[in-house]
Amino acid sequence: MTPFNPAPERLSQHISRTLRLALPVMVARAGMIVLVAVDTAMTGHAGAEQLAFYALGFAPQIFVLLVGLGLMLGTVVMTAQAEGAGRPQACGSIWRVALIHAAAIGVLQWLLMFGGERFLRLTGQSAELAHGGGQVMIALGWSLPAMLMFIATTLFLEGIGRPLPGLVVMLVANIVNVALNALLIYGYWGLPALGAEGAAWATTAVRWLMFVAILGYVLLRVDPRHYGLRGPIEDFRRLGRTLRRIGYPMAITHGLESGAFSCMTLLAGLLGAVQVAAFQIAMTAIALVFMSAQGFATAASIRVGNAVGRSDPRGVQIAGWTATALACVVLALFALLFSSQAQWVVGWFSSDAEVMAVALVTVTLTGLVLIPDGLQAVLIGALRGMGDVWPAAGLFLIAFWLVMVPAGYLLGVWLEYGAAGLIIAILIGTTVAAVFMAWRFQKIARRAVVAL
Fold this sequence. Notes:
2 domains
């Protein structure tokens, strides 16, 4: 049989195909942040106590969800490599193995949520706050299997070059979420007003609807014969081992990064209410822009994975650096906006004079953080496309825990630069991470590429 080896792609093809993959993913990932922002805003109008319940219940849940996301990221890598190698029937087997893993991980995480109230009490929360937050954790826990299976399915679709369905489902989900929040938080149409717990149940309902919708698309719109969606799963154990081999380090990487940023928020809490509020405004702005980087990171994983699948080492390098360059352009535009229009950005989040005064400085500095923070995400996406995932965890440990967190304590707390000092520490840490990821990608991309 003649080996599958298509002609190398031109640079213009790399650019256009990367953008076609990245843009829908950017919007879809941003939709996840919008869901959280809407829940927070609508719960806040139900009272400060309800917002506290939601915040306390959501924080542990988002950590375990990000770890679960890391465990699922091998789906897009393996699917993209199989597609690039001209083995589309293997993609369906990969998806079904990923679904089984997502369901199992989701159930385990759901069970952990029942210990939420006790966990919150151990962190020093009052009995009332721990109880309210624990109820939110339980309600959100019921959604974790659905959310992880939704993520696994969207990663499968992105791997075969179909990111648009995930975008459409996310857009519709945001509309449904607003309606359900109104019913369950405030008790419209004779329903009981459940406050924060109502927001959590609305999120759970929306996440299950998202999974049902994306599953329906796969079953109705994806060719089952071409992509091997039916019949026995070939090499089930091997596929599972490969998925976990990629997923374990990515879960650790996500845990290291999210844990370090959470630690920075705790350091901000040592500085007083005004400083932590200003820091949170900057972090929210970073999170929103970071979704654009995630779009390019996913595109980099897919494009690099395709090149690996077709044994094209030059294509691996061009795909990775093209996604990085495109992301740099987009991030630079956001950085210019934040640096030049900081007052306008801050005005969306607060009208408190003291908070705005400090936030003007933090948001202006945030413009500098956006580029290295986004680029390290894109480059780790490119490394993920080659299956090179364990070294990134070690490099993240150095960049975020041995550099960023100590620098945050030194600048923000010890030298009393406040929230601005914490942002400078984040700039230092993300710059170190970006340099590490660029060095690692350049080193590995020069080697002979081997599919997983």
